[in-house]
Structure formats: C-alpha cells, structure tokens
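The following record pairs a protein chain with its ligand, heme C.
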Amino acid sequence: MPLSWLELHGAMTHFPIALFLVSAFFEVAAFITKHEDWRKTSYLLLLIGVVMSIPTLYSGWMSVETVFVGAIALPQILLIHRTLAFATVILALILLIVRWTTHDKPSITAFSILCSVVIAIMIGMVGYLGGKMVFGGVTVDIISTHQTASAPHGGTATSNTRGSQAQVLAIMKSNGCLSCHSMNGVGGISAPDLTHEGTRHPDVSWQIKHLKDPTSVSPGSSMPSFAAMPSGQLKLLATFLANKK
Ligand code: HEC
C-alpha cells in the first residue's frame, strides 16, 4: 500500500476541519453583515464537511487498528480525540439534517449559529489533540514495531517475532504486570517502567530468577512471585524483558 492509514488520515483530516471552520465563519458573518445569501455558502460547506468526515473517521479508525495492534490499552489522549471526533461529526450531521428539513428557515438561525460555533470549537480541539499525538510521539504501541526482539540464540529475528510478542503481551495482561508497571507509555506507576528493561538487566537468567523470587535478587521487593507460571511462559517473558532495550 503506497500510503499508510495514518498518512492518509493525516492528509484527509484537513478537509473537514477547514470546511467546518469556514462554514461557521460564513454563518456568523452572514448574521453580522446581514448577507443572507452567505448562509447558503455555510450550508454547502457544512454538507461537504460532513461527507468528507466519513472517510476521515474511517481512516482514523484504521490507523488505530494498524498502529496500536496488540496494544493492551489505548492512550487517554487518543480516546478523547476519537470520542470528540465522532461527537463533532454527529453534531454536524444533526445540524445538517435540521437545516435541510427546515429549508434553512431564518427562524433556526440562532440554533444554527450556536451549533456551528460549537462544532468549530470541537473540531479545533480534535485537530489539536490529533496533532499533539502525531508530533508529540504518542503513536508508539505496546508492541513497538521498532523493537528488535532478537531470537534467543543470537539468530536474527524471525517472522514469528510478532506472534511471540503478542503471546508475551497476553501473559503480561493475564498476570497484571501492567497494573504496577508501565511500558511504552501504558500501565501503572507503582513499579519501575519496563520500556527499557533490557538496558538494566540484559541477562535472561536474572529475569527468570527475579520473576520466580523477586526478593532473591532485589531485597525488600514488594513484587509478587511468579514461580507458579509455566516454565515456557517464564522463559518467553524473561527473554522479552532482557531484550527490551
Ligand atoms: C504488585 C505490583 C507488581 C506486579 C503485579 C508486578 N511487579 Fe514487577 N516490580 C514491582 C516492584 C515494586 C518492582 C521493584 C522491586 C524489584 O526490582 O523487584 C518490580 C520490578 C520488576 C522488574 C525489574 C525492574 C528494574 O528495576 O529494572 C521487572 C523486570 C519486573 N518487575 C517485571 C514484572 C513482570 C513481567 C510482571 C508480571 C508477570 C510484574 N513485574 C508484576 C511490582 C510489581
């Protein structure tokens, strides 16, 4: 595919934002200057804005599917961005339907202006949060695509790397690791961040020992013991942690 969903979303998103903003501008300007015909422009821009929103929402949704594949939880900022985006389009659609069914009568002008301004403010916030995520570097998933989870015996990473990473995440999820620890920006704050765990403890046997009996290598540790975990899972998890650089 020549363009990723995220690139497509980034390019498309400017259209509904600009259309909703200019539509609100014409709506307010028509009221102030008494240029009634400007309302037609605002109506047309709103219509195109709603139509353009559909592929924009879709590409945004698919971006999350591809960028955050396998993620345990989505970042808060993304959830707000997405909810607000859907709310904005729904409000714009309601306004469009009202203006359409009432033939844009002057009696609905006050409602229409209010909605337009609210939509403009909301779409501004959606755009701001979106930009903050992309340019602020939040689009890093739990299974970072840049992570080189090298094969256990020094071989090159194989095609099942992603599969075993998904398995590790499932193990971490079912054992509640991320209720205490954070990793790649997601999780709890009561234990050390594990994003670069491999730079501190690159030794797989240290990791296994620590998981089985935390206090044996980290005196006074309050981390629970995972000695009951099947040894295959322990090894997979320890290898992942030791290579998490
Ligand atoms: C109840 C909270 C809690 C849970 C659940 C928990 N940990 Fe920990 N973990 C800690 C604390 C506190 C420390 C710091 C003390 C230590 O090193 O043992 C720690 C330390 C670690 C370290 C060493 C971090 C360093 O300093 O470099 C690793 C690796 C680790 N935990 C992995 C895990 C994994 C994997 C799981 C899930 C199977 C898990 N932890 C579950 C609390 C927790």
